[in-house]
Amino acid sequence: MSLTALLWLLLFVVLCVMALRGPSFGASVYMMTFFALPQMWWWGKSGVLASPRWNLIGGVIFLVSVVLTYRPHVLAERLPRLRMMRTLMVLMVLNYTLVTLLVSINFELSTAVLFLQVKFIIIVFLMDCAMQDETNFRRVIITMLCGILFLGVETTFLGAGKSRRGRLEGVGVPGGNSSNQLANLLVTFLPMAGASIFAKDKTIRAVGLITSPLALNTLLKCNSRGAFLGVITGGAAMLLLARGKERRLLLAGSLLGGASLLMLIGDERILDRFQSTFAPQNEQDASAASRLTFWNAALRCLGDHPWGVGGDCYKKILSQSYLAGFTEEHRSIHNGWINEAVQWGVHALVMRFLLVYQAFRCALAGQRVFRGLGVFDMSLLGLGFVGGLVAFSMSGFFGDYWDSEWGLQLCALCMGFYRIALIYQKQHDSQQVTVPAMASSGQMWAPTWSPPMIGGARPSLP
To answer: Are residues 45 and 156 in the same domain?
Structure first.
């Protein structure tokens, strides 16, 4: 067993023990098996770590940790917006089950995808339960940043993956080890990492400072056209929604993005691929032209099967017939939005859109609360979540990974962020009511509330 494998196993055991103290440590155990699943790296391809069940083990430990240590905040309340998101996810699971049982083209194929989607949604529920207060929320943020950092270190310094036709392949996470999938994961969390640079908490700021450039370097190696569009739209959304000091900080951070853009334009291969998206049909490259054909074929299938065909049934069974005359191979749709509708029905696409939209509203509402409190590091983090959702959805439009696990993980982070923001707002409002009452009675008063940081001690209650 290599030293890296030994260290991974040691850290796993330590976090398992700490998971008995708080649900956020259970989240850390699971994320270890997500970002650093041993069998996907050279140091875990043999021996005891080679088992593919480490991710399942991590999920079970996360579940046990939440069951044993779940403690809602004293000021927590049932929030309609979060309840709506949970209801949507339950309806999505119900729909996946009905499509698989009643209308799927192949029961076995659809069942495999159904189990994956159910697992992803269970993880969202567990993450939501794990982020009931600011301390646990902070730990989860650090865990996600460390996961991205691990990918950046492996690809930048340790030579993980191989370059094929100018694109990084063979690196990633469960369900996402192609260049496009890895790029989609990175653009999902890169805005959060960039916002963490301005955190008042020293640990988060340090991890963010190290993670951001390494993640950006890995993204450039992926050479993904869809990710490039995601970065543009995500950054534009953040700047559009920012105000005052937020915008100034974002503009300062965008200098790094500008430098990376120059590097990206300097790579003729990615520039050619990007320009081909907007070129006339007779000038498009083979990839862009094929993509339009794939989309048209999938839309014809959707017209024939508006209730869905089941998970992976179009890609592995029906695509050949709908692409007859163009190719004899089974091909994917290369469009996450259409893929959701073809697999699970048009109504499934509506539910997925509503879920992402509600996550967007959670992040934006929490961001405005912190802006009103003058806590700009937290408001920037909210903008990072907004930018990540926009980048994820735009990049997912160009590939079959809009239903990926990391997109739902970001939705869970938005849910936790919204809850923390409203708890802080209640603490602030309670303090505002207490101060005049004490002053009118002639009592001495000393302030007990201070603006929250993304880390550090939670404000004391009045």
So the answer is: no
